[in-house]
């Protein structure tokens, strides 16, 4: 009898993500035309280099910032007083390298207040600055249509569509300055959130998400890469070797959640998990959140065209250089935006994750005992599992309202995680268990 029950448990695959009609309605409203209009407005500032701060009226980073503030304020006016808009600003001194003179760093941040106590917060981020070949050149044209007009358009669109929703968790819509100088805007904001004790449980960073044609002309309209770091800030490599959790940083669990949720809600776009923090020779604002000890992922189009990034606009050897809007695919950007909104809404409308989960390791057994801390609003819990060589969760068991369980799988060759499910079927992010003796 007991064996038969165990066999039944073992056969249970991972359940599909249940769709919430309210989230699906949000996705239907994402507009490629509005994304194009936002991108057109950003490109029209000529350059958004952090060093274009003394450009003539209507040109440069300050004009772009002021335009973003006005856009977010108009959106906040539709939120019933729950969204506020602020500048996250400071003066960056010269560093003799990428900052040749002191400059003001000025990011635009809109916050939609959640209705649950505790301040659980998710961030959707982008950078709005752009650059030419020389990253301190504030005068050359730097249209930045894709890098990162695309991500900024996605963040504005998500803020616009979500301003009228009532999420449990707080959502921050961030457009950062000075990413191209070394992630300065996001670093300042992430450290400020950390200093204020804000419980950021995930950052979805969007950077270069608007072109679907790769540099050999190949079309990739149905894929987006999801980057995540391996070892969280403070992880001890020796301990990771013992636990075998090198693929289970909080950012990795967020990445798996993102793919499962985005794929379920957005037909025509497949998330591709990339188990590294970012591409070679490149970085992004999600790393500022990682450095502050927060889970964070990066979305980027599947194959980039490097002649279109970080380059002065010019023809050379028959090749067009520069980040021009003609290379954008706004239907693709709309799919990426829907993907973000699906994940952000499911996170913020759903339950949080167990603050702690434990795997009991005080005796030699061939099964696995787990316990976890309760989650407010959880109707039940699922224990997910996979073999150590699998990239993503492959099975689960429904644990009802229990907060501990013993399962007939050996902890020596299986990995486990615990997640909450609320009464509406929203699933939370997985918490990976810590060993407890
Ligand atoms: Zn970028």
Tell me about this structure.
The chain is α/β, with parallel strands linked by helices and 437 residues long. The protein folds into 2 domains: 2-16 and 353-436, Immunoglobulin-like; 31-349, 3-Layer(aba) Sandwich (Aminopeptidase). The chain is 28% helix and 23% strand. An 8-stranded mixed sheet has the order 1-2-4-3-5-8-6-7, with helices on both faces. The chain has a 4-stranded mixed sheet with strand order 15-12-11-17, with no helix packed on it. Helix 8 (250-265) crosses helix 10. The mean pLDDT is 95. It binds zinc ion (ZN). Zinc ion is lined by residues 127, 147-148, 179, 207-208.
Distance between the termini: 31 Å
Largest sheet: 8 strands, mixed
Sequence of strands across the biggest β-sheet: 1-2-4-3-5-8-6-7
Q: What oligomeric state do these chains adopt?
A: single chain
Number of domains: 2
Helix/strand/pairing category: alpha/beta
DSSP helix fraction: 25-40%
Give the bound compounds: zinc ion
What is the number of E strands?
17
Shape summary? globular
Query: What would CATH call the homologous superfamily of the largest domain?
Result: Zn peptidases
Number of helices: 10
CATH topology of the largest domain: Aminopeptidase
CATH class categorisation of the largest domain: Alpha Beta
Write down the overall mean pLDDT. Answer: 95
One letter per element, helices H and strands E, the order comes to HHHHEEEHEHEEHHEHEEEHEEEEEEE
Query: Which percent range describes the beta-strand content?
Result: 15-25%
Radius of gyration, in angstroms, nearest whole number:
22 Å
At CATH's second level, what is the architecture of the largest domain?
3-Layer(aba) Sandwich
Low-confidence stretches are: none
